[in-house]
Write a structure and sequence with these properties.
- The chain is an alpha/beta fold.
- It folds into 2 domains: about 1-90 and about 165-195, ATPase, nucleotide binding domain (Nucleotidyltransferase, domain 5, 2-Layer Sandwich); about 100-160, 2-Layer Sandwich (Nucleotidyltransferase, domain 5).
- It contains 7 helices and 9 strands; from the N terminus they run E-E-E-H-E-H-E-H-E-E-E-E-H-H-H-H.
- The strands form 2 sheets. It has a 5-stranded mixed beta sheet with strand order 3-2-1-4-5, sandwiched between helices.
- It is elongated, with a radius of gyration of 17 Å.
- The N and C termini lie far apart (about 45 Å).
- The relative contact order is 0.20.
């Protein structure tokens, strides 16, 4: 099983090519270059798009535009190659890369996305229930390091790879795919454009 996985929901897009659990290649980039970066990853590994068996894509939460770019790319490639797609939570992938840590994604506008009692939530950092001695990872943890550490939480150094939802974990969490049109994004609020029209 050859899986191409990518997530464009956060400030750093991540890509991985995985065959039967073995990582053949990984890279990071920008959401706007998702197709070029994925193509380069395949070329470097010596495979062609037709060799793929599954796409795994991050469905958020995260940047509205980033999530949409990733899903649009996954749907386009899946339709062109007749591939199944597995949608994977960006928070779950982030947590898989740092077992035991709390994933925190910067939601912008003074908020973060995280998991509270098993549910994905958007909230302000000041009401994030920080467990003393617990580790917090993700770009939200980096941005609100002061708030988290003041409450007794631990945040790895800013440059730590633990802060990026690495696509190898999307492939690991993917399970079986389904038709691309059935994969839905995880949005926790209405996009700014829709607010402006309301």
């Amino acid at each position: 099983m050859l899986t191409l996985a990518f997530d464009t929901a956060t400030g750093t897009a991540t890509y991985a090519l995985v065959r039967d659990g073995q990582v053949l290649g990984e890279r990071t980039g920008r959401a706007v270059e998702v197709l070029a970066d994925a193509d380069e990853l395949l070329r470097t590994a010596g495979v062609v798009p037709r060799d793929l068996d599954l796409l795994a894509v991050g469905v958020g939460p995260g940047s509205f535009t980033g999530v949409r770019i990733g899903l649009a790319a996954a749907r386009g490639v899946a339709l062109a190659l007749d591939l199944p797609v597995a949608g994977v939570s960006t928070l779950e992938a982030l947590a898989a890369g740092a077992p035991g840590a709390v994933p925190v994604i910067d939601a912008r506008r003074g908020e973060v996305f995280t998991v509270v009692s098993g549910h994905v939530r958007g909230l302000t950092p000041d009401i994030l229930e920080v467990g003393p001695g617990r580790t917090y990872v993700g770009d939200g943890a980096v941005r609100y390091r002061g708030t988290i550490e003041a409450a007794g939480g631990l945040v790895p150094p800013d440059e730590s790879e633990l802060h990026v939802p690495r696509a190898r974990f999307h492939a690991q969490l993917a399970g079986e795919g389904r038709p691309a049109e059935q994969v839905e994004p995880v949005y926790l609020r209405v996009p700014d454009a829709e607010k402006a029209l309301a």
